[in-house]
């Protein structure tokens, strides 16, 4: 016996959504990280546009003009969404793990137990260093579960690194 669901029932209610208990507050990355992402997007767009322009000028291929236009449009749209995308990045220190989220349309949540962390690393690119920002990367035994928290102020990244190393050592000692 099959039942036909009404149109209203197709919309998921609160019980069907991802339930994350509010253990603490979400911490966001620095708003200055928008500059890092915007500069990277513009540089990448310029490189692609320059390559298409070189094809157009050297080989006299007309479709390269359409590629230049598409690159400019896509780069502009990406730059327009950068502030919202950066605001969607956050992390939460919970009792037994660190919860990381990112994404606007396709939101990704990654939970990394403190006892499984093997490496906590801080990296700084040239633009991020100029803005006083750093990326915090931690790796677990599973290669696919490496998490990168970008755009943290340098002091926050260093204190978070020290705190995570301390938590990881105390949780591993209990194994």
UniProtKB/TrEMBL annotation:
Keyword entries, A-Z: Membrane, Transmembrane, Transmembrane helix
Keyword Ribosomal protein: no
Transmembrane segments: 34-57, 63-81
One Pfam entry name: bPH_2
InterPro entries recorded: YdbS-like_PH
Domain YdbS-like PH: 87-164
Coiled coil location: none
Transmembrane keyword on record: yes
Protein name per Swiss-Prot or TrEMBL: PH domain-containing protein
